[in-house]
């Protein structure tokens, strides 16, 4: 099936797909986000931290923080470049599909390699390379919301993304906790999850219309200059865009300050040994699964009442309760309370966040490029959160300070979203 219309423009997309099959699209997004997030969480929350310890790192917290900090820069650059280049891609499979397809293969290879490298330097290099494959999948997936999902369904689709992401992260942490004594095999399972997620998405959703014959106008006259242009942040009419960017960055940074370190927090903050800490992480995952189900209602509710901001404020407030729990109760009970409220906050935020981001895009024609910037906030927030925790713990020798700092970040996210004018 081919067409000469521009897929990136919603009106043309509707012409190619006159009837939007909401159930089919939700199934595709759920399949991708649940399975991909399982693989991602297995690695980021359990396998990578444990692998670093198994390889004899003297200061595992500092090593993990450094690896993820540099990895966030790689991911940020990759996300922006992939988003811009996918806007220009012309093929019989469309502009996003080729990137998603090859990103799945790269992710499969790099995730498998991470479990089979026996030195920290090699593990670090492969982790950074895996960020390229990961963003070759993520950037096109996010762009499909702008390209092909009608506005009246974006809250519902965003809810499916948030539900799938939260549930997948929970399952991944739960499953990963059972591989602390067989990390290599765990990495193999995670690699397969990354690959299968993308392939299922492409099989389930309607095939992307081909755009091989469409004319592409380069902003700067050549592909190379367009890549350079892709690093030019949106300015005209982009005030709300950057407020949404700040909101996402602050809140995800705060959440990841804890989420990336649950295993270490259980071991070093409340004094559990490895296997006991792994059991707590598996229980945390169960709480996250329950939270993801609760969060699933938020997107459709947002579409019905035509409100985005109240949902974001609620998510940040719930997360703040979670951040305060370990301060009040520095024990397993406090950790479980933190897990419940942080998971609820994260689930609600992720279920509405993508709809908010698409609503504040300053330009439809540059959707891939601009979403590359705002989606970089996800990577930056997640990786920078881990790096910030690492720096704080390395400097102070304790996890005591990460909780109040996470609360402060959440307050900044609330301020950012309340300042948005275009969306209610």
UniProtKB/TrEMBL annotation:
<keyword id="KW-1133">Transmembrane helix</keyword>
<dbReference type="InterPro" id="IPR020846">
    <property type="entry name" value="MFS_dom"/>
</dbReference>
<feature type="transmembrane region" description="Helical">
    <location>
        <begin position="373"/>
        <end position="395"/>
    </location>
</feature>
<feature type="transmembrane region" description="Helical">
    <location>
        <begin position="26"/>
        <end position="48"/>
    </location>
</feature>
<feature type="transmembrane region" description="Helical">
    <location>
        <begin position="102"/>
        <end position="129"/>
    </location>
</feature>
<feature type="transmembrane region" description="Helical">
    <location>
        <begin position="335"/>
        <end position="352"/>
    </location>
</feature>
<feature type="transmembrane region" description="Helical">
    <location>
        <begin position="276"/>
        <end position="299"/>
    </location>
</feature>
<feature type="transmembrane region" description="Helical">
    <location>
        <begin position="401"/>
        <end position="420"/>
    </location>
</feature>
<dbReference type="GO" id="GO:0005886">
    <property type="term" value="C:plasma membrane"/>
</dbReference>
<feature type="transmembrane region" description="Helical">
    <location>
        <begin position="311"/>
        <end position="329"/>
    </location>
</feature>
<feature type="domain" description="Major facilitator superfamily (MFS) profile">
    <location>
        <begin position="20"/>
        <end position="424"/>
    </location>
</feature>
<dbReference type="GO" id="GO:0022857">
    <property type="term" value="F:transmembrane transporter activity"/>
</dbReference>
<dbReference type="InterPro" id="IPR011701">
    <property type="entry name" value="MFS"/>
</dbReference>
<dbReference type="Pfam" id="PF07690">
    <property type="entry name" value="MFS_1"/>
</dbReference>
<feature type="transmembrane region" description="Helical">
    <location>
        <begin position="60"/>
        <end position="82"/>
    </location>
</feature>
<protein>
    <submittedName>
        <fullName>MFS transporter</fullName>
    </submittedName>
</protein>
<keyword id="KW-0812">Transmembrane</keyword>
<feature type="transmembrane region" description="Helical">
    <location>
        <begin position="245"/>
        <end position="264"/>
    </location>
</feature>
<feature type="transmembrane region" description="Helical">
    <location>
        <begin position="185"/>
        <end position="205"/>
    </location>
</feature>
<keyword id="KW-0472">Membrane</keyword>
<dbReference type="InterPro" id="IPR036259">
    <property type="entry name" value="MFS_trans_sf"/>
</dbReference>
